[in-house]
Amino acid sequence: MPGPKGSGRQLLPFDLRNPRRRHKLKGTRACGWAENFVAFDSVSAEELWCAVEQRVPAALSAVHAGTPFVDPLHAAALHDLVVLHYVRSYHYRRVHIDAFARARVGLVGQLVRNYPAQSGREALRETGLHLTGSDSLGAFAERLIDRSAVVRDHASGKIFRTSIEDTFYKVRAMASTWRLEVLMPETGQFLIGDNPAVTLCRDGTNTSYGMAFGDANTLVLPIGPGHLLALGPENVMGTVPRSVVDELNTVQVHAADRYVYMHPRSGLEAFARAVAEQQDKERL
Question: What's the pLDDT score for residue 2?
């Protein structure tokens, strides 16, 4: 929606942590943006993003014209866009951080269990103390690990930058046999969360989300109120009923880190509020 003169197009960011607050319009550049998402050598990652994104405007124009599959390059660009948003996300960063934390705890335990004598000698050399108990050896092992190059590279963001780039290429290769679906709502509009690309798995009438890519049977990405991209068995452009739109919008709310974005005249505030408040009740 165009905003006041000179302000450009605007969206309504809905804060899921404060669903009852009065939400204000923001320009599109201020929505879905994270400062220092890749903190270390970000030029490398930005070059990768740019290589995908520079192909997107023409592909989106083809989507709006109803011809996304006339040029195979357009479908390929949109396919890569879905993968890019899957790995360049709060969700992937959280998975990466949690995995590193678990690995660090596991390594501390391994040092204490498998190398107690060596750890004790190193502690004596460094501190002059004889450490024998698992708690004291564990505390010393944490100090050793925290001084390691791997932990320093993790703290700087170097490992995350490398991981996110490698994962993009791996997921793109895994998804190479999937085709592109361009879906439009018969009625209503799509929400876009701040973790917009979401893995889904449908089992009969049940739909789950957020599983590992290899366990999903589709990956969805809303690209506007009137269009959603999904990976599937064949190239297709079609419409989905309101029940599916509501289901996909519910997934966007559940998968979001904090915000979902909507067209200012979509009427979706009440929907997002109801889903967010129900989710909070289920967490209690």
Answer: 42
